[in-house]
Amino acid sequence: MSFYGLVDGSDASLRNYLKQLPGVDQVGAEARAAMLATRSIKTTSKAWAIDTAISMVDLTTLEGADTPGKVQALCAKAFRPDPTDSSVPRVGAVCVYNDMVGIARQHLDSIGAHELPVAAVSTAFPSGRASMAVKLQDTEDAIVAGAAEIDMVIDRGAFLSGRLIEVFEEIVAIREVCGDRAHLKVILETGELVTLDNVRKASYLAMLAGADFIKTSTGKVTPAATAPVVLVMLEAVRDFYDLTKVRIGVKPAGGIRTTKDAIKQLVLVNETAGPEWLNPSLFRIGASALLNDLLMQRMKMSDGYYASPNYVTID
Amino acid sequence: MNFEYAAAPESRSVVKIDPEYGHFINGKWVNGSSHFNSINPATEEVLSRIALGKAADVDAAVKAARNAFDKSWSKLSGRERGKYLFRIARIMQERAREFAVLETLDNGKPIRESRDVDVPLSAAHFFYHAGWADKLEYAGIDTTTAPHGVVGQIIPWNFPLLMLAWKVAPALATGNTVVLKPAETTSLTALLFAQVCQQAGLPDGVVNIVTGDGSTGSAIVNHPGIDKIAFTGSTEVGKLIARAVSPTNKSLTLELGGKGANIVFGDAAIDETVEGIVNGIFFNQGHVCCAGSRLILQESIADEVLEKLKRRMDKIRVGDPLDKNTDLGAINSAEQLAKIHELTAAGEAEGAGRWSPNCALPEKGFWFAPTIFTGVTQAHRIAREEIFGPVLSVLTFRTPAEAIEKANNTPFGLSAGIWSEKGSNILWASQQLRAGVIWANTFNKFDPASPFGGYKESGWGREGGRHGLSAYLKGSAK
Amino acid sequence: MSGRLEVMKTYKLYINGAFPRTESGRSYEITSNKGVFLANACLASRKDLRDAVVAARAAQPGWAKATAFNRGQIMYRIAEMLEGRSDQFAQEISLQTGASSKESLQEVSDSVDLLVWYAGWSDKLPSLAGSTNPVSGPYYNFTIPEPLGVVGAIATIDKPLLGFVAAIAPILVSGNTAVALASSSAPLSAISFAEVVATSDLPNGVLNILSGQQSELAPWFASHMDIDGLDISGLPSDQHGAVKEAGVENLKRISAFTKFSEPGRILAFLEAKTIWHPVGN
Predict the structure, then answer these.
(1) Domain extent at residue B363
(2) How many interchain CB pairs under 8 A, B with C?
(3) ipTM over 0.95
(4) Are B266 and B252 in a shared domain?
(5) Are residues B404 and B317 in the same domain?
(6) For this structure, is B197 an active site residue?
(7) Cα B372 from chain centroid?
(8) How does pLDDT run across B45-103, given as a tens digit for each residue?
(9) CB-nearest partner of B86 from C76, C277, C278
(10) How confident is the prediction for chain B on average, in pLDDT?
(11) Which fold has domain A3-301?
């Protein structure tokens, strides 16, 4: 593996590379994120943003209580978010637990949604506290069942205790299992990494190890996808592109509940990484309740008055 | 796919501008004898006609201020004075949107800035100083609790309302009465402030506002009935005032120009530093005395920083100041625009490398694209003279000592910036820099509790904080 | 009299932004200085005190982290709300103490002004109580004042409103949270003050107000290991010794004051933190 020619796969090489990254000033990053949150997106730009956000949603159900019925309903919604309006785009992907992947894939195919990918949360999601063998098998199972996207978690314990090469090698191993059958999103769980310096380091580590996407959170821990965290990750993919000419995607997940939240994310992308990232192949939003808020806002834009939850389906 | 932001204009309907204004003297509106136009620099439309204050108007204002000092204001306890200031602060908060829109129309600055910075800080300034009015005996070393009496205050056009707050709040808190002249091109928020004084029930004559031009200011400076002058503006005019005041007993504080050095060390947090550079020189169109107008970059990271800076500057949105998404507004006047053109032409002539992003500038109004000059040395005019516009001069350094040397090599001494992740370096550099305000890993941060003012030719005295009070108390050092 | 029956107010405790009755179910009679029945006030128990301290502790980090400007604004708003209810509070004071309407209104005005005075200290005291210190060596050395944490206050017996405000305002202004015990015989003003606080944007738990017997609760204030400081101005001086002794267990900072407006009332509940940092490159 070449790791873009930036590290050689050894512990020393990885440590040195991550150490020379510039620090992040927390107050400055928060101020930049806050300023971008004041952008006022109206009329035509708002309509475009809503539809773009819908197309970027990874519609998610990750509950212990998930059943085939729940997952099938989710899939139907993902393909046709508003049964009364076929102009509404389909979402970016459906995101489920490993053992639901098959059910999701079958149902999507049965309703004609062949292009809608299933993303699986693998590698002992959300904690990642299991043996490597289990994580590899987890990944393989999901791909065989039909997952085209794998959302893996990094070992935060190893990261925080400085065993960076272990974190790195796990990602490399999972990437190898994915091969060209599935794209790999690497979940950093930024809420547990805490500092923005760590977010930057973890972003680079994941990209060097072969991530196709870097993802903020499992959604099971708060804080999740805060604006400063997403800002730092977008800066990382932007700078990584300068170094390697490869574009890595970003997926914020958790805490993005309203259209306003989603539009703020798009503004962050637009003014940090750039408009090249404003499409579902490079930016996704992991969410569940968000979709209905996007639909209600979409209704308001076309109808001219405020919508009610009665007019969007619960699944 | 391009994410174009649609127009997002703030509504003008929240503010009512009269076609003509007089002066605010002794709690009432007094007609002016002649008037001049005040225009919106973004569109060149005439907003209103402002009275040109003559010697007689200044005289009436000083008499009203003296009368108010003797008969009412000095008779009040500090506690009661403070409560007036609390009222003023509250009313400014209540009318915040009105003030912000008016400031943007009159000055040309983006509504985001007047809404998020100018107006809240102005209200906060009154709130802070209200609390000092009844605590002056605790304020510090060698401070008496006696006010001067009548103070004359002359303020600039770059932060019209905020500069009014910086002047009026401490003056009133310490028991003085005021004759204030706003800048010629930006009188409207001062005149709206007069309404706030009326709503707050401020006793007549405590605050008087006389509008006009340089001649009006001169009448104030020279009036024998004024005990103290406070001026914010150019160093050139500041020196004229200081000369005029020298043979008198008048007390004087000055807040003048600057050519702030923004020093970036190799270990800086790069992305936040780039934001800080942009903020340092493009905030308020660079019409800032403490702007970081000289970027002093460590050579080892110069290329990387400049590349990121240019990419960031590409995202600066220049246009209608009333649009909520505008980052860079209009230059305040044709006169100021001409000055900026003159100095940038000199920069090119002297061999510096000029760069601006591609941005469409509106047809009408006064506009200048954000600009950087690289390869600048201390000998260049654009490294020595205050441009007061969105123009950054970039110099490099090799060692920390060299950075300090270049930073200090100026007759100004108002502000400096330090970008480094190393604490001891920041503290060392702050100790070496001859500047009254030093921002480390940030820039253009203001707070009523934080003293502001310059070394050397950037002025005399401080505004804000405990230090800023002493200027308004008789018998104090400054 | 029109013959209309008045709806009488129930006087409850104020804990964590809510108005519970005492968990003990007990009450005691409040009468005017002439012995006329006014109300049954809650007779707070040590468990109410315990709950109040939990609320105060939980609220303290957020209150301390708020900007000084923000705290000052909120305290100023408390003054605004009290000003608007001048008549209500004046009547209540007159009923309890027999003071004339003029005297009672004066006490309310003084209370409003005192709140304004303390509110104005929030963003100024650090400039005076802190310092940079010229140590010998290449170090930047500075001292910053910080709030203690949770402070208990036992309010004075006379001036039922003013004494109460003088006790709690200086505690809150610097970022401490408070558990206050009203005057035993005239607690109504302090309890009604909770209505003012509840409409002032003060976060839940920052101020908690109990009514009850000072003699019953003082020892529990004194011995509580999660109370950091105490203002015992309201306790008779012959009880101070016992309280101080009980407070030694966790080295409570304990003070009693005579003047209503003095910066010392703020300073008594501050810590001083001194920080060193080398200077060099």
Answers:
(1) 261-440
(2) 67
(3) no
(4) no
(5) yes
(6) no
(7) 23
(8) 999 999 999 999 999 999 999 999 999 999 999 999 999 999 999 999 999 999 999 99
(9) C76
(10) 96
(11) TIM Barrel (3.20.20)
